[in-house]
Amino acid sequence: VLLEFMCSSRFQYPIDAIDLVKCLCEEYESIDDAKHLIKSLDINGVLRDLSEKNALIVHKDSVGTKLVDIIKEINMDKIKQLCREYFKDLPKSMPGEEEAEIAEKQKQEEEKKEKYSEMNIEEFNKLVGDILQQPSIIQRELINASHEYQKLLAMPTAQEKAVLDMFRQNNVRKIDYCDQGTKEKCCASKKSAVPCSKVHFREIIRPHTDRSLGNCSYLDTCRHMDYCKFIHYAIDDVVDKNDEKDGLGRGGMFAEELTPSQWINCDLRYLDFRVLGKFDAIMLDPPWDIHMNLPYGTLKDKEMKALRVDLLQDEGLCFLWVTGRAMELGRECLEIWGYRRVEEIIWVKTNQLQRIIRTGRTGHWLNHSKEHCLVGIKGDPKINRNIDCDVIVSEVRETSRKPDEVYGLIERMHPGGRKVELFARPHNRRNGWVSLGNQLPGTYSVSYTHLRAHETGRNLVCRLLLEKKKIILL
Fold first, then answer.
1. Which residues contact 90 (CB under 8 A, 6 or more apart)?
2. Average confidence (pLDDT) over 330-353
3. What is the DSSP letter of 287?
4. Residue 450 · residue 465 · CB < 8 Å
5. Which tens digits make up the pLDDT trace of 232-262?
6. Does pTM top 0.90 for this prediction?
7. Which of 311, 305, 251, 309 is nearest to 283 (CA)?
8. Which of 111, 280, 380, 402 could share a disulfide with 417, CB 3.0–4.6 Å?
9. Sheet holding 433-437: strands in order across?
10. How far apart are CA 223 and CA 22, in angstroms?
């Protein structure tokens, strides 16, 4: 009788043993002698037995002057199990619940009929389509498993961590940019008068700026800022005074072991490369003639093929930047110079907000948001393999300036070797590198005790005498 009453919806707890007896008497008052049998029942003993079977939780407490048991919680699954043990013929639905379950099912059926009767054929087909498009249990398990596999594959291995620690630069500081962009938006999002400690940007608004056009993809590196109507940005915080330097002498992790940066202002079409000696790595950023208006002079295809780059190296690596129609021409040049193309580095261009630039300056049919660097090899040089990735994601800066990450990549592949960059510009000068180009400021060298220049009928390349740590121009 007690178990049957506990399974019904009329049973409410917490309840003490005295009130429980009263409720049982009221529940079964229609049965003869039921009240007498219930009052003669040792209710406290029954509650303790049920508590030992984990069917309910009983606490002792005082009610008036009596110490009685109080039911705090019940385990309905255990109560129903005990009912089935005592009543073998008990149906699956417990006493007192059968009528409620039947009524609930009838109500649900009526709601479904009412819902579908009001639904037209299109809505019904859409509902069926949505149900069919939902992934099954097996599909969801496969998707979750694939996400776990991707997460595991993305984690660096112990070997990769060891190699990364080996080549990690000292005193490298990561710059964190605020997701809000400007200080005003940062304060508004925080509802505070003080912005966060991350680096922010400030808008560059000029008389011709049209705010309705939105942001320029190049931010502050746009070379058309004098008439570009888009909104441009500049860094609002000074991160480090040393960052304002022109970058001379920054040679990466091998800065202490490398010679100072050296450069020669010359026309590479007429310079005799034999006087420079041999190099372990060569990088070229030629002014390809890509049939577009560019802010600098270009070389014709035949002039590029005629360069004697082969004289600079017996064995080693050559890194050749190409773009547009120069993709195939660059491969031809590598073959002419005696190299075998083995790799290709992709530079994905981003702005200062770390977003991909979608309005590239080059491209006849599509805007180019990336550049390619062909990697050629000559001979069998001793280099470090499989250290770096073939994709560089970096910000766009001055016109034709390539990412600094490529210099670190070359240093790690061939640490400490002699390196030369052809068609270099002032911002390319670095420790351990010899820079050659016609846009460099004069000439500076400490590696050569002398350099014999030569003349041609068309162009006087250079006539200079170089001494260690001193230069005399004649």
1. 83, 84
2. 91
3. -
4. yes
5. 888 775 444 333 333 333 333 333 456 788 8
6. no
7. 309
8. 280
9. 391-395, 340-350, 370-378, 316-322, 281-284, 419-422, 433-437, 262-265, 443-444
10. 91
